[in-house]
Predict the 3D structure of the following.
Amino acid sequence: MTYSTVAKQSARSVPKVKLASVPKVRLYVERPEQENWFVHVGHVTDRGRWRTEPHAHPAYGQVIFVRSGRGVMNLEGSSVPFEGPCALLLPTECVHGLDYELDADRWVVTIEVAYLTQVNAKLREFISLWASPRMIPLCDSTETGAEFCGLIESLKQEVESDALGHVVGTEALLTSVLLMLVRETRLDHAANENTTRNDVRVVDRFRKLIDEHYRENLPLQDYASMMAVSLVQLRAACASASDQSPTKMIHARIIAEAKRNLIFGDMSVEQIAFWLGFADAAYFTRFFRREVGQAPSQFRVAARQQPHRKAVAQ
């Protein structure tokens, strides 16, 4: 019996719960008249220590370029130390907190999610880059940090420009920024030769739909119908461009949200199960144990007892 089947069988019995989840923060744009922004670049310099509590951004991804200074990033419940020059890459909905321990000079590039999807479709490795949050050191040489800083400064100038072709210029510079991060991250470049740009677009659209509907227990056919592709095409695109089946991609999104609420939220395991669309809390526990290797309650205790455990920097 599938997760979707169990949820639908008992849908009427799902109790209403008061949610206490991870804070969702939207962008503060320095120039409020920019209602249709798609890329925003801010330069921040702080003296001393500066800290933000764990939160998530629902509608955009971010690249934080730390030119100098150091600190610790609370990344999905794990502590990742960083020191400039480096880049902190934060996908949409990634739960993160930042603790800058020393004077930090940093640039924050914020990219609206629909536009980011469009840019990511240019290169398969861009999709891989944004697949998970990461800290990317840029300290192999002094030239690396300086080159990246130059790109960010040029991007800021282009974003704020009203010159002819500034939208095209912004896209070109943002593409260069992401390409440099891909190269510095040393992702596996052994891409499947059969992967096409269309496969990448299909998978990116599928990920976006999962983010919108993962709590609704939709069958795969519904996703395929919304994308105007067949199930065979959806499965083939996922195998080619993501190395995961469509079902695994949905399950991974559910597990990611479950982990975030177990670590940062105060809902009970039963409330989290119902919030994620499970009508049977016991089934949610079995589902979580199968995917993670621990029961939800065990995962919560272990995660909260080790708040400073290190995550592997990618």
About this structure: Residues 39-185 form a domain with the Jelly Rolls fold (CATH 2.60.120.280).
